[in-house]
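Have a close read of the entry that follows and walk me through the local backbone shapes. See right below:
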Amino acid sequence: MSVAGGVSKAVDRAVVHGCEALQIFSKNASQWKGKPLDPAEVRLFRRRIDETGISPVVAHASYLINLATTFPLLREQSITAFVDELDRADALGLLGVVIHPGTCTAGTEEDALSLIGAALRTAFKARPRRKTMVLLEHTAGQGRTLGHRFEHLAAILSHVNGSPRVGVCLDTCHLVASGYDIVSDAGYADTFAALDRSVGLDRVKVFHGNDSKKPCGSRVDRHQHIGEGCLGLEPFRRLLHDPRFADLPILIETEKSSRSEKAGTIVEDPLDVKNLGVLRRLRGERG
């Protein structure tokens, strides 16, 4: 949900849509530096979260951050911005920060994965008492992006000695785009068996629920409305009735409508209503 008008407005938007969990950007996702959080807004945000019982709440990190880069200036900027993301999430009392692991700019994948691990260790050393989690998002595999194989996530975890501060965010669109078949019964079972072997299902803390405009193995990240893409409804039905994930949120990142809110008003987005409605109907079905 958008934080336009102040971070607490995101909670109001979530309430209007009947949300049980929430993801926000705590700053502009396309800028390195964000406006400092207003203390009064932080207090109001935390109070509204307590009042509504919405949980968990996570932030998504800026898209500019690349913890795998070999370029010194970009690496310094990325780590500084990432620590700031953790600080903001901690101030807001969030479960964690979802971040794309990074893009390989030079050398091997193994070198880049080691750089990501080193960046996480640097951030943890800078904020040793923080409890905010880092949630590594499994990616679609475009270009030289990392994180599209479960082995990548396992390698990063090994570079931080299995820190309990690191979890995983699984995106249904990214899974299919990167080549994991969660559409068929057998593919779904094989995918999560492979994840359990390499990473551990207990590391999964949140799902991004998005259909895909592109087919399995395309390595193209294009989100589609639930049930209207290459996944269809069945993978979402399985997730919603999978007892292993019963307590985990599914956060949608589907396209929003072009309708704008009038000043001082919070209104439903018809596309959010549609996508959330589909998931709720699937959840209400008997397994």
The chain has one domain: 58-284.
